[in-house]
Write a structure and sequence with these properties.
The chain has about 400 residues and is an alpha/beta fold. About 30% of the residues lie in helices and about 15% in strands. The strands form two sheets. It has an eight-stranded mixed sheet with strand order 1-2-4-3-5-6-9-10, sandwiched between helices. A two-stranded antiparallel sheet has the order 7-8. Helix 3 links the parallel strand 5 (about 120-125) and strand 6. Helix 2 packs across helix 3. The longest helix is centred in the middle third of the chain and has 32 residues, at about 215-245. The two termini are about 10 Å apart. GO terms for molecular function: hydrolase activity.
């Protein structure tokens, strides 16, 4: 559909999907999952008067996506689009990626069996990219029986239905890998964020970009070392709780200073069109210890499932090696959230025989103030879907 083609009026329908809880450990607050049933909410955009055998499914592990421009723009072009919320919508402090994959499977089963769609396309946007890869790899070949914390999960018993194609757009390799890119390695005391190593402080007044290769190598190694120290503490604490044999099974904790990404301050690192000195959360130094940073609030189990790169099952590159459906990977060249190499890494890792990659030059993460780039993305997706017989 070209930019001159007529657009459709769309209607937004509230979606409710429920299924029996199978996880041994309950991790959802309130009615949504504490009474033996998981309740999920989403929004389906349907073009008025337009039937379709194909459904595009957007899902993020921790947030809802119905306000993004891309789902609504595709619906206006005549496509049926679902924006699916997980059981952890808007609160990822206790999020278990294995449970989110089961949630996504429940929506896809509902789309097939209740709505009657014949084809499903996973739309992996931002944090939904690695989720989609994780889901598809397990739907094609389910292998995971336990979470990284050792709790049984329902992936192999949930009857996950594979999607027919996937679009990976403005998305990162995984939450854990992104966290490793962003965490502040200068923190030397997890209980006191003001105790810091000035040699590793990205925001020290005497440290200015561009950064030397030696500094970056030391910085990246220290980031991973901090995560591994934190992970060792998490595993030790979990083991202590288990050995006690009591009813205390979980704990929440705070991780300070998790936004120290050198790419945001030095345009010479993995250069692209992103703005320098800022990020999708605003001023990086302000976001570093703000209340909404990655992994700021976490449980022990959640840390292992979504934030530890050594333990997570939802590592995008590893999961991409297990998918075989057609894949379109789309990079936004001015993305101020997704590191520049991540799209290429996923494209290279994917086992799909039919895979394509495109770059939308100048596009930021959310197409803010960029209707022309949103139009280009829509054209790209429509053409790709049409060529694979996924449009009516």
């Amino acid at each position: 559909m070209s930019k001159d083609s007529p657009l459709h009026d769309t209607q937004a329908e509230w979606v409710h999907v429920e299924f029996p809880e199978q996880a041994a450990f309950k991790s959802v607050y309130g009615f949504a999952g504490s009474l033996g049933t998981i309740h999920l909410e989403g929004v389906r955009y349907v073009p008025k008067g337009v039937k379709s055998r194909t459904l595009l499914v957007f899902m993020h592990p921790a947030t809802t996506l119905q306000l993004l421009p891309m789902p609504r723009a595709l619906a206006a072009r005549g496509l049926h689009v679902l924006c699916a919320g997980s059981r952890y919508a808007r609160n990822d402090s206790a999020l278990i990626m294995e449970n989110v994959a089961v949630d996504l499977g429940a929506y896809i089963r509902h789309a097939r069996e209740t709505w009657g769609y014949e084809k499903i396309v996973l739309m992996g946007w931002s944090g939904g990219g690695s989720l989609s890869l994780f889901y598809q790899s397990q739907a094609e070949r389910p292998t995971i029986t336990h979470t990284p914390a050792g709790d049984p999960c329902a992936i192999t018993t949930a009857g996950l239905i594979p999607a027919d194609a996937m679009i990976f757009q403005a998305a990162h390799v995984s939450r854990a890998v992104t966290f490793a890119d962003w965490i502040d390695p200068s923190v030397v005391d997890e209980n006191d964020p003001d105790r810091r190593d000035p040699e590793l402080d990205l925001y020290h007044p005497d440290r200015k970009p561009p950064y030397s290769a030696e500094f970056l190598a030391r910085f990246r190694a220290a980031q991973l070392a901090r995560i591994r120290r934190r992970t060792a503490w998490v595993k030790e604490t979990l083991e202590t709780l288990k050995k006690r044999g009591g009813k205390e099974m979980e704990r929440g904790f705070v991780t300070h200073r998790t936004m120290a990404e050198p790419r945001f301050l030095d345009g010479a690192i993995d250069p692209n069109d992103r703005p320098i000195g800022t990020c999708f959360m605003g001023v990086p130094e302000t976001a570093n210890n703000g209340p909404i940073g990655l992994a700021r609030f976490s449980t022990l189990r959640s840390w292992l499932s979504q934030w530890s790169p050594d333990d997570t099952n939802a590592h995008g590159e590893k999961c991409a090696a297990g998918i075989h459906v057609p894949l379109l990977a789309i990079e936004h060249s001015a993305d101020d959230a997704v590191p520049q190499p991540h799209t290429r890494r996923i494209f290279d890792a994917a086992a799909s025989a039919d895979k394509s990659m495109a770059v939308i030059r100048g596009a930021n993460h959310y197409f803010v103030g960029q209707p022309e780039h949103l139009q280009q993305a829509g054209d790209l997706c429509m053409d790709w879907l049409r060529q694979r017989g996924l449009l009516d």
